[in-house]
Amino acid sequence: MHLAHLRLRDFRNYARLDLDLSPGFHLLIGNNAQGKTNILEAIYLLATLRSFRGAGGAQMTRHGRAGYFVGGNVIGQGEHEVKMYWSSQARRLTLDGRAVRKLADYFGTFRAVVFCTEDLQLIKGAASRRRRFLDLLLAQTHPTYLALLQRYTRALRSRNALLKRRLLDAVALESFTHELLATGSQLIQHRRELMPRFSPLARLAYRRIATDEEELRLEYQPSVQNDFAVELAQSRSRELALRSTVVGPHRDEIRLLLEARSAAQFASEGQKRSIAIALKMAQAEYLTGIHGTAPVLLIDDIMGELDAKRRGGLLPLLGRAHRARSQVFMTVTREDWPAELGRDLTRWEVEAGIVKLAES
Amino acid sequence: MASLPEPVTQLIAALSRLPGIGPRSAERIALHLVQTDAAAVKELSRILIAARERIATCSICGALTERQPCFICEDPRRDGSVICVVERPVDVLIIEKPATYRGKYHVLGGRISPLNGIGPEDLRISSLEDRLAKEAIQEIILALPSDVEGDATSFYLAKVLKPKGTKVTRLAHGLPVGSGLEFADELTLSKAIEGRRPLE
Question: What is the tens place of the pLDDT at every residue in A31-56?
Fold first, then answer.
């Protein structure tokens, strides 16, 4: 799977950008604040419809403009043309010229995995970060997962709105509880099934890049212990006091453990960084295993921070993506670093919103 | 820059409050109207007013009608023991189209939606209960949308109506007739597999 063409209009600092891209390794070279990461952000947006920097549409629009456009030609199973337009008044997403009505239909057209400094929040941040990571992985691999998650979220929000009413309508609450249980149980099952497949991949990835001998393990800690319906019913007095649903997959936790100790509490900064990379490597491996094609890898700025051992651990993954006719995009500030990548690179110079092939 | 005269901007504002009409379309329609033959515009306004005055909701089922009660409620050839519950008046026309359903209707006027502040008391549920008490109804068919709010409303109605001794059913989920499997999305397909039936 690769991106053959990228087109940006009024996106971040790009007034217009048209890039023809081959499979393989792409290095984006430039000083800070020239627009290297913006290109990765646009590619990630095509894959997930989200910014990996957590930015909204207005932030991604070029200063003084009404909206942005991001388009791409994706070559995977066949060739697809994706067009996204965002403005405060309108948003459009088309696939091969036709409007995408359900996001679940769009997911899977193009898959990407991003490595960036924000990944550290997977270890340090709130449980919602880890749930979102899991949800994205399941949405990228299971065709009904996103629709289920959307239904669950809708039922949850409806239920919470009912709990906030002054007079509780018990039958209306029960009606949305019914939907919450039906979709929630399926979410729990998907997450439970994923964990034994994903955790070993993360463990192997950590072993390849970490400088220590410790073992990384992921442990799914569902909010529901055995029976969702029973436990939800038992939580009634607490949810009435808090006016919010307190049991369910929206409260799940995914614990990261190094030698059975919580990584968030006990791991060093260096270990946390290795865990973040290991999780993303495992995500890429998992997607490749399920779909048979490697996702596009987007590597933002983290390489320079890594020592030789960690870089060495990451290289086989990058090499495989390369050989599988997929793509790797990497931003670097100095050209001197990635000598170990070999000569087979496309080098782009990025300066003030202009991207040129570097002379070699 | 010169701006449009006030009557035109007022017209644009009024038109853009209509469903499906954005600011651009509203402006185009307004500019067209003020440049059209005055008699044609008068005729249009007469038709608008007449339509609004002659159409009301049926006092029994809640469908759109010119007379009270509506044709369907009054039709003696219709089976009064079966009632199909729909969300909007236009849904009656959709179910009438194939001309296979011979029962009567009840329009709810919405679905329970806590996020939009719509509760059961805002829907025509008590008038449905009144009908159950007065008419000899044996079956209620729920034909609501299958999104979260639609399904929760169906569940709510079943909960409220079943204790009154009526059979409550809902429309089946499944494959569109006459098309290939590739046209069904994954959720519909998994529902269709769940709801499979033995061949007779």
Answer: 888 999 999 999 999 999 999 998 99
Indicate if ipTM > 0.85.
no
Which chain A residues touch B152 with a CB distance below 8 Å? 155, 158, 172, 175-176, 178-179
A88 touches chain B (CB under 8 A): no
The residue of chain A nearest to residue B147, with distances taken between CA atoms, is A151
Q: Is a pLDDT exceeding 80 seen at residue B24?
A: yes
Partner-chain contact B186 A161, CB within 8 Å: no
**B94 and B48 co-located in one domain:** no
Q: Is residue B192 domain-resident?
A: no
CATH of domain A1-111+297-360: 3.40.50.300
SS3 for chain A, per residue? CEEEEEEEEEECCEEEEEEECCCEEEEEECCCCCCHHHHHHHHHHHHHCCCCCCCCHHHHECCCCCEEEEEEEEEECEEEEEEEEEECCCEEEEECCEECCCHHHHCCCCCEEEECHHHHHHHHCCHHHHHHHHHHHHHHHCCCHHHHHHHHHHHHHHHHHHHHCCCCCHHHHHHHHHHHHHHHHHHHHHHHHHHHHHHHHHHHHHHHHCCCCCCEEEEEECCCCCCHHHHHHHCHHHHHHHCCCCCCHHHCEEEEEECCEEHHHHCCHHHHHHHHHHHHHHHHHHHHHHHCCCCEEEEECCHHHCCHHHHHHHHHHHHHHHHCCCEEEEEECCCCCCHHHCCCEEEEEEECCEEEECCC
Mean pLDDT of chain A: 90
Q: Best residue in A107, A141, A175, A186 to probe B by mutation, most B CBs within 10 Å?
A: A175
CB contact under 8 A, A102 and B185: yes
